[in-house]
Amino acid sequence: MTLSPTAPEVGTAPLLSAQGLYVTFPGRHGGPPARAVDGVDLDIRPGEIVALVGESGCGKTTLARSLLGLVEPTAGRVAFDGRPLEYSGRSLKAYRKRVQLVLQDPSGSLNPRHTVYDAVAEGLRIHGFAGDERTAVAEALSRAGLRPPERFFLRYPHELSGGQRQRVVIAGALVLEPELLVADEPVASLDASVRGEILALLLRLRTELGLSALVVTHDLGLAWNIADRVAVMYLGRIVETGPVEQVLTTPRHPYTQALLSVLPEAPGTPIVLTGEPPDPSRVPSGCRFHARCQVLAGGAAEAAGVADACRGRDLPVLSGDGRSQVACHWAASHAPLGGAGNRATRHSPLGDGPQGN
């Protein structure tokens, strides 16, 4: 399967789709349940890289685990290739061959007692691979940038650098020839000098293999450099979504603006949010961000006549189809400023220079 390296057009049938997804957990000491994922629609199209961003505790990892079938949703559904995900053992096993997870910490993902060969071959053995195992492992390592692959067969994780260990983890996912990768903070534990290499690898895999990817991250710079589309999550719900260049150059939601403003390379005065995100078992009425919103606190929402709505009127769940959308009463009363720019020559507001995916 080989696809164009450019992002698919909006309207292309999604490969993975979440529809009306809710995940709740029992409350503490008999209290109300925690709404970790509180109504999410999200599509990932073939060959598309979507970045899911937000603060720690916003629900993005729980959403990713639900999309992988590791957490069964309380309500809503996950569909892959047009078919609803079933939670029987056999169906999940077949599904996880097509959708693979890449975790944040390669050291924690690899058994220190297993060689690189065994680590990569593990998935083949679980799924009863009937072909030439040695060839499949060698091809996966080579695709992950470990060449010649035979040099790494008998090495152990402690003999590798952090970047090499992450490549082994990626090779372990690639060996099953999946159609989609879910990467949870894939470069967070790596040195800055290695991060670019791993991001370039993920982009190359998309180009060469047509892989789709969901990249879970708190790093907006990473989202800028790898994603076609970004979904910003706050307190269990996606509050802004659209093409990455549009969301990160002309953010409309006050939460997105605040996340961007505190980056070292960002122009202007940082917006420091007060307090912590609310308890997911006690989601505020109205806009779930209103208690921390700098627009409401500064009087701009009052001037626009939407302050009461911010405090008391809930916002709808954004659709997952890839269109630019924002869940904000104040933003809805204002036309977005500026344009999305040209993807081939765009320059990052974060100071990273031009990007070409």
From TrEMBL:
Keyword NADP on entry: no
CDD domains: ABC_NikE_OppD_transporters
Region feature Disordered, mapped onto this chain: 337-357
Pfam families noted in UniProt: ABC_tran, oligo_HPY
MF annotations from Gene Ontology: ATP binding
Keywords: ATP-binding, Nucleotide-binding, Transport
Family: Belongs to the ABC transporter superfamily.
Protein name: ABC transporter ATP-binding protein
UniProt organism field: Streptomyces dubilierae
